[in-house]
Amino acid sequence: MSGLELENISMRFDLPNGSYVQALQDVSLKLEPGQLLSVLGPSGCGKSTLLNIVAGFLAPTGGRISLNGQAVRGPDAERGVVFQKGALFEWMNVRDNVSFGPRMAGQGAAQYGPKVDHLIDTVGLADFREKAIYELSGGMQQRVALARCLANDPDVILMDEPLGALDALTREKMQAMVLNLWKETGKTVILITHSVEEALLLGERLIVMAPRPGRIYREYQLPFADQGVGRDLREIKKLPDFAARREEILSMIWNMEEEIMGSQGAAA
Ligand SMILES: Nc1ncnc2c1ncn2[C@@H]1O[C@H](COP(=O)(O)OP(=O)(O)OP(=O)(O)O)[C@@H](O)[C@H]1O
Ligand SMILES: [Mg+2]
């Protein structure tokens, strides 16, 4: 059995004061190999918790999770993570950051060298191989983070707001790069974002989560990621279908928040 499967995943955090937070409740999801899933939802709805469970950093308090038929029991190189920022080795240069995984896996320079150099070229940093991380802009650092993740050749790439700290123009360029890398490498990707536009542009599938308890509220299948590969994403954004979907999802999120706030108001 191939793909990533989550069955009734729940996560409850017990707090020191005796109360608890139900961060996730009965989240079920099946991702085929090579699919890109975007995840949207208000702050606190459990997006990072979900990603951390798939990464193996957190063990769920309920449910089952497997990758290619094998139960997920902890972190593994088959599941790579790209964080919003700050997870690089600041004192190492670009090449040493990107080659970190293969070196830790015991590969020699002759083995990993060509692959690492190719990845650095692919993310557009050929002139920066020897630069230290602190010498790079935020956008360049996220390119390094992506290349470092890909160097481990994971089956699944997990991204938590990877472009969230970038300026608008850099973010647009990086969106195109993520899309093209996804098609080229055939990786399964889960992308958390706060941007409806980004979720629509990059996700073949999109889930919108709701909070308290964290759960999947709506799911969509989308055509734009396939249409956008190798194209200027601004052209995609101008399509009438794109604008219509954006409005539909924005008003759905608006209504969802009204409904949840309303029910909390009634309970208070
Ligand atoms: N280690 C923890 N201990 C206790 N509560 C936690 C812990 N981690 C997360 N939570 C709670 O679980 C809920 C979900 O948190 P999570 O970080 O997954 O949300 P998120 O959707 O990623 O939010 P954001 O969009 O702000 O990043 C929140 O109410 C949060 O306070
Ligand atoms: Mg989060």
From TrEMBL:
Show the Gene3D superfamilies listed in the entry. Answer: P-loop containing nucleotide triphosphate hydrolases (3.40.50.300)
According to the entry, every stretch annotated as the ABC transporter domain falls at 4-236
In its keyword annotation, does this UniProt entry include Transcription? no
Asked if the Swiss-Prot or TrEMBL record annotates the protein with the keyword Calcium, the reply is: no
Annotated GO molecular function terms are: ATP binding
> Which keywords accompany this UniProt record?
ATP-binding, Cell inner membrane, Cell membrane, Membrane, Nucleotide-binding, Translocase, Transport
Pfam families for the chain: ABC_tran (PF00005)
Write down the InterPro entries for this protein, in alphabetical order.
Answer: AAA+_ATPase, ABC_transporter-like_ATP-bd, ABC_transporter-like_CS, ABC_transporter_ATP-bind, P-loop_NTPase
Task: Tell me its family.
Answer: Belongs to the ABC transporter superfamily.
Name used for this protein in its record: ABC transporter ATP-binding protein
